[in-house]
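Take a look at the protein record below with the fold in mind.
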Amino acid sequence: MTANPKPPLFSCRGVRVSVEGKEIVKGVDLDIRAGEKHALMGPNGSGKSTLAAALMGHPAYEVSGEILLNGENLADLAPDERARRGLFLGFQYPVAVPGVTVASFLRAALSARLGREVPVREFRQQMQAAFEALAVPREFAGRYLNDGFSGGEKKRLEIMQMLLLEPALPLLDETDSGLDIDALKVVSAGINRATGSESGILLVTHYQRILEYVKPDVVHVFMDGRIVRTGGADLAHELEERGYDWLVDTATAGG
């Protein structure tokens, strides 16, 4: 793993998260620089999804610590303000919104991100480019948001949002969940297309499978609410071979 001399695009310091009085995330420090892809791996129940939702500002969570994007502390901002600053959360289980079309939702999201009303013609051009990038049929635009969508369709829609919104730091929570191999390849190609030299990414996953297509620069192992090991892409392969049990003693020894 080669050191990156750039200052961090995103940092969190001493982040702790409690849900209904129970501490789930127990002190996380993390730096992500522009151009870097980070994978956060760990077993079920380790707190990975809680961390991602807390960074985005989940209102039901009690969060302490600093959350910095481009040097600005986002800790006191509402989720929509964090989104306008450049954070993006891709959900493991996106919700359906009957009555709201995909096109209407995407245009409203893009207008909010840019802070201006996006003209219809401009938006349609951008949306069509995103459809083509993810091999999505044009009639997708008129369907209600995630209503009756397959798992693959829901995940493609989230990556379409990334392509349109161009967030500084997407937080993708188990985007590979429920995808067959063909959908995984398409979604991974979209993730790679949506991330570049000016943005970073934090990809939360259980398995190494998606990391064959979205090559991580840094891999973190998350257990019992903490990052217990950090390494390069080879660490993901080691986890695939050995599982997580060999790191249990490291996790339980944390502060």
